[in-house]
Amino acid sequence: MEVPKNSRNIILELRNIEKTFVEDSRRLKVLDGISLDIGEEFVAILGPSGCGKTTLLRIIAGLEKPDSGEVIVRQENARIGFIFQSPTLLPWMTVLENVALPLRVNGLSWEEAKDRARKYLTLVGLQSFEDFYPRELSGGMKQRVNVARALAVEPAILLMDEPFSALDPLTAETLRSEVLDLWMWGVTTVKTIMMVTHSVDEAIFMADRIVVFTPRPARIAGIVEVNLPRPRDRRSPDFQKLEDRVYELISA
Ligand SMILES: Nc1ncnc2c1ncn2[C@@H]1O[C@H](COP(=O)(O)OP(=O)(O)OP(=O)(O)O)[C@@H](O)[C@H]1O
Ligand SMILES: [Mg+2]
What we know:
GO terms for molecular function: ATP binding; ATP hydrolysis activity. The chain is built from seven helices and nine strands; from the N terminus they run βββαββαααβαβαββα.
């Protein structure tokens, strides 16, 4: 059940990840043994609020340590890009500087970083906004900058934490298609996408596999494969059948 389509090419392995947060005398078990092999595919993580989805992404990105278990990146020098749940653009920096900053941190000169940043701003359609400040942008444009910033580090693995949930429905739908197109056309370095979402519809629309988490502490309740051609038709009977299956897992 946990074998991806292209199982010869596993990019990321999660082995029995466990995490308990301890604060004062309170212990909160959040992840209860998450194991998953992930290939060159789009995986959606679906689960109730507070079950540990963000924590898992943070562990994969190396921003948090698991108590036990392992995150194994199978590809040499594979970088990881992260699109966070809450907005993280620096308000005193321009769009271009915001996208270039992580590249500076990775050792590029400002000139190199800005050239690279321009390339990815162009990919997300923001080439003429490089001198704008975040407050001058709409919500959708800000999220495009976040996408460009994550892509600019040229990651093999892209982690997205509810990337569309703060946007109005139309903007969200446009960005979903754009991100899928960028990934499928192979114009970026991204091979694997892991996206956390609350939306069953969004998961079926975008992902190759949907991993459903239980309420906290999160375990894998089940995995649903989505073998529908893209772009996907939400009104098709197959789409609706998948919706039923995912909802069954959620309420199990
Ligand atoms: N650094 C931390 N210290 C203590 N507790 C934490 C920390 N980070 C997260 N938690 C707790 O762990 C639980 C899981 O948090 P997490 O952010 O992973 O949930 P989530 O599934 O992403 O939720 P949501 O869907 O609401 O974003 C929550 O109860 C949260 O309060
Ligand atoms: Mg979260």
